[in-house]
Amino acid sequence: MAAPDQSSNSSTGVSDIDDAVNGNPHHARDSSKKSSKKKRKWRSKDGGADEFEGRSSLSKRRNSLHKAARDPRDEPEGKQRKKVKAEGVITRSPSPVIDFDGLSRPTRGTRERLEESSEQAAERLEKMRAAVRTILECVGEDPDREGVLDTPTRYAKAMLFFTKGYQQNIKDIVNDAIFHEGHNEMVIVKDIEVFSLCEHHLVPFTGKMHIGYIPNNNVIGISKLPRIAELFARRLQVQERLTREVANAIMEILKPQGVAVVMESSHLCMVMRGVEKTTATTITSCVLGCFERKEKTRNEFLSLVGLNRRV
Questions:
Q1: Which of 23, 151, 199, 247 is the one with CA 20 to 30 A from 162?
Q2: How do beta strands 178-183 and 217-220 pair?
Q3: Mean pLDDT estimate for the chain
Q4: Residues 71 and 295: beta-carbon distance below 8 Å
Q5: pTM of the full structure
Q6: Residues whose CB is less than 8 angstroms from the CB of residue 202 and which lie 6 or more positions away in sequence, other chains included
Q7: How many angstroms separate the CA atoms of 281 and 276, rounded?
Q8: Which positions ≥6 away from 76 have C-beta within 8 Å?
Q9: pLDDT digits (tens, 9 = 90+) for 9-38
C-alpha cells in the first residue's frame, strides 16, 4: 500500500492518517469536520462574519424597526441616560441673581433709589424736572408757555411711576403666598396686560403675557404672577429680557417642575418711528424645566393660551 502524501491538506492530523491507513474512513471524515468547524470559529474571532453572527445582527435590526420614532426629550426620566455636561458649558442663560433685597439686576442707582430719604427723593424729582425743561427747550418749545409750564414736573413723576419696579422687592410682592397643596397639574394665568418702556428709545411697548407653571406640590397665589410681571415691566426693558426675567424669578421663588412664559406686544419704537409698521406683533417665549424638556407639555401650554390655534 502506498504511503500517504505528506504534502496534502495541512489540517489533516496524524490520527486522521492512522485512521485512513487502518481502514477507518468515517472517523477520518468526522475529524476533518471538527477541524473545519474550528477554522470557522477562528475566522469569526479574527473579525470574519459567519452566518450565525449575520443572523443575530439582522434580528437586532428588525427589533429596532418596531420602536416608534420618538423625541428623546419625551422619554421618561428614569429611562434616560444621564448626560455628563462638559465643564464650563452653559446650555441656558443662568437665572438672574435675586439678592437678599429681592432685587434683580441691582445697580448703584437701584440701591440709592430704594434706600433714599424723602429729602433725597425731592432732590431726585427736581433734577428730573430740570432735565425735562431742558429737553423742551432743545426741541424748540417755550417751557414757560401755559400748556407746558407744569409738563416737566408731570413728566418726572410719570417717569418715576413707569420705572417703580426698580425699587420694588420681589419677596415683599410674593409675601410668603406659597402654599403646599399637593397639586402637580398645569396652572396658567393668561392675558396679563403688560406696559413697559423700551430702553433704546424710552417709548412704550404694550401687550399681553401668558404665564404657566407645573407645581412641585407647592402653588403660588395666582395674583402674584401678574404682580411679578408688573415688577419687571416697570423698568427700562427689552421684551426678550422681560420674558426671561419673569420666568427665572418664578422658577427661583417657587421651584416648580417647570415654567413657561409667552409675551405678545406692540412696540411704539417701530410704530411711531423707524419702519412704522402698525400691525406688527412681537412674540417672545421662555420655557424652563419640564416645558423645555417635553414637547407635549410645551404644546399643551401653547394650545391652552391660544397660540397653536392661530393661522
A1: 247
A2: antiparallel
A3: 79
A4: yes
A5: 0.68
A6: 236
A7: 12
A8: none
A9: 444 454 544 554 455 555 555 556 556 655
